[in-house]
């Protein structure tokens, strides 16, 4: 119990002034937690404020158009978070009369809310004793107790939760969870932990054994899947074309340049093959001699959590208006582009032109 009190007292004297820590509003707490998944605080802050400005409460978010939400989310990645954000807002507004559930059973039924996010909302908004186990807390507990179980294996999660469930008893749950996460973020860092200023260094087995640099343990990850995307920047008159991704895949419901995925990287010197691939995008033959021109622009690599996207960009200039096979194709120009949510890979390419 003494080590818990030391951590909480340290937190009270050293906490960062973050806006979601000064509210009990479950909507704002939930919004911050979703944004901060896979996102650093400094980057997440501007998105948090932008969402609150446009959607100050859950009802206004529930009334939002998905494309608007995705556009506002643009740049954060992991777009399923934004889609689930909207789905949850609609459910809470309709089924729960705009009030977040205050039980683990009900709140865990909402889209995109796993055990961590549910625990965070229940502890921060409703002061219920549910420990929030994120990456920072995994690291702190691994080192405090010299636990060598891989933290990225789901079967090991109960070991850490059992320790946290014991620690959280008898203290303010919100302060405890914030304190544990703050300790991991500011002191018990992945590299070069600041053991000399750690409030619980005398309780830490990893410090005693000299094993802090080896913890936490992570099981080897599977190799990233390599994918080959061939994008066509198809220009006609004063604009170009975007296409909406409808399939259940990365970037679902975002807009990109017309694209063909291939099993391997294209040979950009094989002109005939490239022309055939461009032709396959259209419903009728328009790429007759003199009616179009095409050139290679550049190649880019884009890394996602489990995938490596190898992208090649080609410019296609048309003298005749095309008719695409895909009926979600849009003609845009510089002024209208801002209305459509884009993957960061496509946004960076267009900004480089």
**What is the assembly state of the chains in this entry?**
single chain
Mean pLDDT: 94
Order of helices and strands, N to C?
HHHHHHHHHHHHEEEEHEEEH
User: Could you say which overall geometry the principal axes of the C-alpha atoms support?
Assistant: elongated
CATH fold group of the largest domain: Endonuclease III, domain 1
Percentage of residues assigned to helices: 25-40%
Number of H/I helices? 14
Classified in CATH, the superfamily of the largest domain is: Hypothetical protein, domain 2
Cα radius of gyration in angstroms: 25 Å
Q: How many domains, as an integer? A: 2
CATH architecture of the largest domain: Orthogonal Bundle
Using the coordinates above, name the CATH class of the largest domain. Answer: Mainly Alpha
Percentage of residues in DSSP E strands = 5-15%
Q: Please give the largest β-sheet.
A: 7 strands, mixed
Distance between the termini: 59 Å
Total count of strands: 7
Unreliable spans are none
